[in-house]
Amino acid sequence: MSENLNDIITYTLNHLKSRGLDEYEVFGTASHDNEIEVYQQDIESLSVSKSKGIGIRVLRHQSVGYAYTSNLSPEHILECIKRAISNAKVTHKDKFNYLPVRKDYLYQQKPIDLELLYDPCFYDYSIEDKIKAAKTLEAITQAEDKRIIGISNSSYRDSAVEVVLANSNGFLDSYKKSWCYLYVNAISRQGDDTSTGDYFSTGKHLGEINLEDIARQAAKRSTSLLGGRKIKSVKADILLDPLVAAQFLNLIAEALTADSVQKGKSLFKDKIGKKLFSLDIDIYDDGIMASGLASAPFDGEGVFKGKTKVFDKGILKTYLYNTYTARKDNTKSTGNASRNSYRSVPSVGINNFYLEPKKLNFSQILSETGSGFYVMDIIGLHSGANAVTGDISVGAKGLWLEEGSMAYPVKEVTIATDFLSLLKSIKRVGNKLYFIPSSGFIGSPALLVDKIMISGT
Amino acid sequence: MIEKELIRKVLSAMLSGGGNFAEVYLQKSKNNTLKLEDSKIENAVSGFDLGCGLRVWKDNRTFYGYVNSIEPKLLLQSARELGRAAGLGKNPYPLQLSPKQFEPLEILDNFSLPGNNRKKNILLEVDEACRKYSKNIVQVSSYIADGQQETYIANSQGVFSQFFLQKVILSVNAIARKGKEVRTGHKSFAKTLGYEMFDLKKPKEIAEESAAIAINMLEARNAPTGQMPVVIGPAFGGVIFHEACGHGLEADAIVKDASVFKDMIGKKIASELITAIDDPALKGHWGSYSFDDEGYPAEETVLIKDGYLESYMNDLRSSDKLGGEPTGNGRRQSYRYMPYPRMSNTYIANGKSSSTEILSSVKKGIYAKEFAGGQVDPATGDFVFGISEGYMLENGEITYPIKGATLIGNGPQILKEIEMVGNDLDFAPGFCGKNGQSLANEVGQPTIKVSSITVGGTGN
Questions:
Q1: Mean per-residue pLDDT for A323-340?
Q2: What is the average pLDDT value for chain B, to the nearest integer?
Q3: Smallest CA–CA separation between B445 and chain A, in Å?
Q4: Does residue B96 have a pLDDT over 60?
Q5: Do B46 and A48 touch (CB under 8 A)?
Q6: How many CB atoms lie within 10 A of CB B438?
Q7: Coil, strand or helix at A167
Q8: Distance from C-alpha of B440 to C-alpha of B421, rounded to nearest angstrom
Q9: Paired strand residues for B151
Q10: Distance of alpha carbon B169 from the chain centroid
Q11: Mind telling me how many Å the CA of A37 is from chain B's nearest CA?
Q12: Smallest CA–CA distance from A88 into chain B, residue
């Protein structure tokens, strides 16, 4: 078998032809990954990998079956086809089960400049450059502040991936993507108190990364929380750091997928056309954003990715759809069929999802806050926030604010509310977007939230 | 799966750049998942995976790579590349020629692996049982997954180990609605066994337990706020020890000075009521294995004995650095990943009190029965846990269910504040994430009482 992904996919398509199937689809990826971790100015670990695999989706009598393999010998591909077909015998029959049709794929030109996804520059950086970047990041973070006693993790990761998708309706297309990620976590100590703080940055290649900025942010986040104390339980205004706000926004995005709405698992069910924010807030899911880590020309089923306005002036306009859920609601796919890898069935997912910033810069928003709790980090989001019931109760640390300036650090408290109240309570929005890589690429400015329960002693 | 002669060549190639340790990790696996939602089998997925992870140490540095192949040419090529990356040293480290012999540990006898139809019926039975439990159950999502894994490990110190693992998990999520109130309930049942695991517990029972949580919670009132005594229920309650202390006892955190338990061996770190154990050799448990992912045999490790810290959990790397023996805790998700010290089945051993005694000792506090999970910062020990099924305790009685509650505190501190330990040890399966790798883990504990934890709710 050829090493070439296109050849492997062609081979697989040819063998799917004669199996009496209604439709079929093959999705393949080939990737190169590097991961470097340094510790005390030496390489702690360096990992280089090459990975390849295909996922086969078949439809027969309106039932779907799926199988994947990383073993790409001809006999294993045939075994994989066989399993996909036998899996289609056990799943339910559904009239909306068919692949996107030709008109769903038709676009005049590439919706996104492919060079925005993949920069050939990526290969200009040697492994030595990448090691040096991680070492430099460790050293300059450590040097930021005397109270930093160690760096628990300074690492570089990157990936270059080729994605190929083909189906029995004649779709065949591919694209390449590259990204890199630098991360540092600083441990600081003062007296008996230990504190940690981390920061990261992403880009298409190493040249896009500003190491000084990562070091400064991580050091600040670590040291500014030293000497943190519990406070008495109180209801107060909270200012969400953009990176914290983005984590909440991620859960909101997940609850906006048509799949969770149709299954009655979303608090946004029956809320289309309703004003859910008090402010005129706009939220977008953008699959073709120039600097977006989640950008691609087509989604996991080959449908054109576009830009969807999910909230317009605080009013919920639409859910996020793949082909199947769109047919069920008698609408069009928004290009949100997502595939984490060839190992998973396409589902409804998030692209670059962000809350449109407004005018206030950070110091303005601080003075608007007056006294309250500036939340710099939250923990326990996945166990403490339930997008089905809407409950939120998470651990938080940050700084107590008095008259718009930092009074003292706070730790070991929780903040509790529910999603719909949280949306309603947002009263100020910052002017600068920060993105986090998560189930999509999620961006938010700083958000000032009215009166929330803080639990301490 | 592979010729020994090829393994020897691959290991030599990896050491050609002067590395002092080399390891080959070959893995072939198969898995099947059926998922139900809306009372229908929504998807059925099968996967075949094959790959080889190669690891070289050169002094303190680890070099790792993997390929989706066990083809000799590609393996040797990757081994040479990695060997070169590992350094410019001229003196290859010798291979140990006498293999280490380990007694294979039997954790799995005959197992049964049915076809898709039986699995489909199990899921339909789960759906029916949940919906029958109450008309307020409005949605059921459930999946059943099985996996088989054949692993072969060889290293330059003479370890040759080969083992097989077979696991099954049934997971049930029920959603209940009454008016505007929506509540969820979750239970899973998972073993290192085949489908004969359902002789131990019926799918119907798991479904009903999950539905019962969602239904009980429909009546929940807002959780209280502030510090109070907390009784933590058996089985999944052990997740608190796992997160708040277990991770800090994984020796990579010790090596990196990122654990609050550094330099604490032999010291009293917990209430004398506490004995805690990690044991991957428990038969059939979800976190069990016969060999760890570095080829070392699984064994019981006593972590804390009567409040005194006895041992960390080691992999080869950390035992090398800290000077000790590997404890059989070197684990990884697959050939795609480097091993790290990880927990297996970790539990707090039985104490003397009955659960009734413990509950009735609380004047005003909460009973945390089930958790949605949690998170901890191992460098500080600070943790947070979401309670998914909790009740108010007043004058020794359970009075009403509470919602939206979170526990927040510090692991080492909580360990000292455990006042009572029950005699009803039980286990529960879960997944544990660390360094981007997700592993099958089991937690266990009897009912325990902590004198004071901060509860974060919205009520008073």
A1: 94
A2: 91
A3: 20
A4: no
A5: no
A6: 11
A7: strand
A8: 26
A9: B27, B163
A10: 13
A11: 9
A12: B44
